[in-house]
Amino acid sequence: MDRTTELLVLLHHGLDQLAPGLPESTLRAWSLCAPLPADPRVLDLGCGTGAQALVLAGRCGADVTAVDLAPALLATVRARAEAAGLADRVRTVEADLRALPFPDGAFDVIWSEGAIYLAGFDAGLKGWRRLLRPGGFIVVTELSWLVADPPTEAVDFWAAGYPAMRTVDGNVAAAERLGFRVVDVFTLPDAGWWAYYGPLRERLAPFLVQHPEDSDAVAVVEETSREIGCYERHGAAYGYVFYVLQG
Ligand SMILES: C[S@@+](CC[C@H](N)C(=O)[O-])C[C@H]1O[C@@H](n2cnc3c(N)ncnc32)[C@H](O)[C@@H]1O
Known about the structure:
The chain is of the alpha/beta class and about 250 residues long. The chain has a single domain, classed as Rossmann fold. Helices cover about 45% and strands about 20% of the residues. The protein is built from nine helices and eight strands. Strands 1, 2, 3, 4, 5, 6, 7 and 8 form an eight-stranded mixed sheet that branches. Strand 4, helix 5 and strand 5 (about 130-145) form a beta-alpha-beta unit. Helix 2 crosses helix 3 (about 50-60) and helix 8 runs antiparallel to helix 9 (about 215-235). The chain is globular, with a radius of gyration of 18 Å. The structure holds S-adenosylmethionine. S-adenosylmethionine binds near residues 18, 69, 70, 97 and 113. S-adenosylmethionine binds near residues 21 and 115.
């Protein structure tokens, strides 16, 4: 792990969610995945601290396999599941979402909020498809342009941060090209961004105090502030979009 990633991990340590998201939006996407068998088998990829795994197991009755590369995050997921009385419904697996160790057709639903970008939207969908039973669902959130002509500041920021970012139409076309039926597409509400950015922003000043004279920590804080500021000014131009797909 490089120093910047290490600092980002520290900055995010203990947050309940590691990306924009809202339980209400997770539930809305879940309601679109029908029909499903009783006790549906759900694979949550890039689960972080379990924000979605806990909702899927606790409120949707899913049997969740939560995958992440970071053992410390998986330990947090297990502790939160235990505390919520969901230990028997959430199991954790340390694995790379680009090379998953599960048999074909093992899941009814594959879920991934704020993490498919790590594989790439098309490569993720392509690689994960074999894990889905025929007619199963894939739900992902992906940072997407919402307007045809976004402001220059946002374009420049994301050209550096996420050059592969496409429009909603571009992602829908890609999913269809890969043979998925697009069940629905909807944008995460603004509140879902602030559920993540709010607590993160509160940590920035104390983080600098905890890392005195550390130019890497300053750079991480500045970049995070820039990201939040960009969303504050231009959040109407881009968003986290839910893509609910059927295989
Ligand atoms: C932006 S966070 C989203 C976490 C969670 N879904 C949420 O909304 O809070 C992305 C997660 O993917 C994990 N991750 C990064 N690279 C990964 C990989 N190659 N395979 C599996 N997980 C990975 C990170 O540890 C992190 O927990």
